[in-house]
Amino acid sequence: MYEGAVQDLIDELGRLPGVGPKSAQRIAFHLMQADTADASRLAEAITQVKATVRFCQRCWNISEAEECRICRDPRRDEAVVCVVEEARDVVAIERTREYRGRYHVLGGAISPIDGVGPDELHVKELLGRLDDEPVEELILATNPNVEGEATASYLSRLVTPLGVRVTRLASGLPVGGDLDYADEVTLGRAFLGRRELGV
Amino acid sequence: MATYREQGIVLRSYKLGETDRIVHLHTQGRGKVRAVAKGVRRPGSRFGGRLEAYSHVDLQLYEGRNLDVINQAELLASHAAVRADFATSAGASVMVELVDLVAQEGERDNALFLLLRAGLQALDAGPADPAVFVDAFLLRAASIVGFHADTAACAVCRRPGPHAFLSVKAGGTLCSDCAPPGTRAVDPAVIAGVGLLATPGEWASLPAFARDDALAHRTAASYARAFVEHHLDRRLRGYPAVPRG
Ligand SMILES: [Zn+2]
Ligand SMILES: [Zn+2]
């Protein structure tokens, strides 16, 4: 245990995701030895992010305005909404430059064992958008793990009766890899997600 | 470093660092095992999707100082259909939650392993009403760890039944002499339902019970939940997520 301010800093750092007590201590000592200007820039960046960044009132993406850049862009197709777990998934999909529709960020995935149900996610808001916006297709891009699959199945049950087309992001083989190195789960999924080849 | 081989079912996992996971398994020979799967979150990892919850795997592990390390994993049954549907996934989540609570590290419990495998197989078949399999699983798992819901005799004086009174605390049915004054008698169909839910190996007749006597099933299901939560002194967090007709 250290004195007052040092211990406070270690405690705060230790609450960050992926930072254990040892790392928290290392970062704290690094900051104490750093230039005052460097440390102030970090403090300022944190303050600034909390003051200016909020969540888009339409899609719950990270935004510096009432609505995010993507929701405000009239060239984005409002008939297609891609549902993701986290804002960082929006960034990942945007990097592909393949997608021209809009997004909806759930803020997590259903995990009963952790007490996370549909009410803890932005599901109500998604249903509201289906009422208010001319959405024709919902692309479910939740993670290909237990929680993501459960969330996709839940949403598909909920939304399909409303007459919206529901699709799921294909999961399959890593590009550039050899087929015989793929595990049977991944290969099995790739088979389920196979598609017609145009001639 | 000592290595060993075990069959196990993945209960759940937690992120560790950037690319690893800590995986909880219930194994056939060593009870609960907590082990590290290195690099499993990286795309194209050698484990691929084999270490997802509900998978039945054949493992090779290193014994570590704190946690063991998974070296190889071969898939025996993926139970992929369980994960693909919200209702079965929610049901399986309660099963693994209970096993994760009661299974002890280093203590062989093959009965619990076989029960979990049977429960997941039942859900993997895509039943219309997965909830009744969860109800049965709860009472059967409780019985394996020492709390049997007894409907064959009075739980207090052991007089052979069937009896008309049901008690969570006493651990089963009560005769009219042992039931506290003012206790209300229960429909015989509920008593029979609790008996069916608690009978090991009896999976095939569960859907018919749930379908044909929905009211008795509902009461027996609440009893199963209350029984398990009382005797194990734990709340089942995932229980309310299981869809019920
Ligand atoms: Zn937006
Ligand atoms: Zn008695």
What is the fold's blueprint, element by element?
The complex is a heterodimer of chains A (199) and B (245).
Chain A: H1 4-14, H2 21-33, H3 36-52, E1 54-55, E2 62-63, H4 69-72, E3 77-84, H5 87-96, E4 101-105, H6 123-132, E5 137-140, H7 146-159, E6 165-168, H8 184-192
Parallel strand pairs in A: 3-4, 3-5, 5-6
Antiparallel strand pairs in A: 1-2
Helix pairs in contact in A: 1-2
Chain B: E1 3-16, E2 20-27, E3 31-37, E4 56-62, E5 68-77, H1 80-84, H2 86-102, H3 110-124, H4 131-144, E6 165-167, E7 172-174, H5 188-198, H6 206-212, H7 214-231
Parallel strand pairs in B: 3-5
Antiparallel strand pairs in B: 1-2, 1-4, 2-3, 4-5, 6-7
Helix pairs in contact in B: 2-3, 2-4, 3-4, 4-5, 4-7, 5-7, 6-7
Summarize the structure.
Chain A is 44% helix and 13% strand.
Core attributes:
heterodimer, A: alpha/beta, Helicase, Ruva Protein, domain 3, Dna Topoisomerase Vi A Subunit, Chain: A, domain 2, four-stranded parallel β-sheet, two-stranded antiparallel ribbon, 8 helices, 44% helix, globular, B: 245 residues, alpha+beta, OB fold (Dihydrolipoamide Acetyltransferase, E2P), de novo design (two linked rop proteins), 2 domains, two-stranded antiparallel sheet, 7 strands
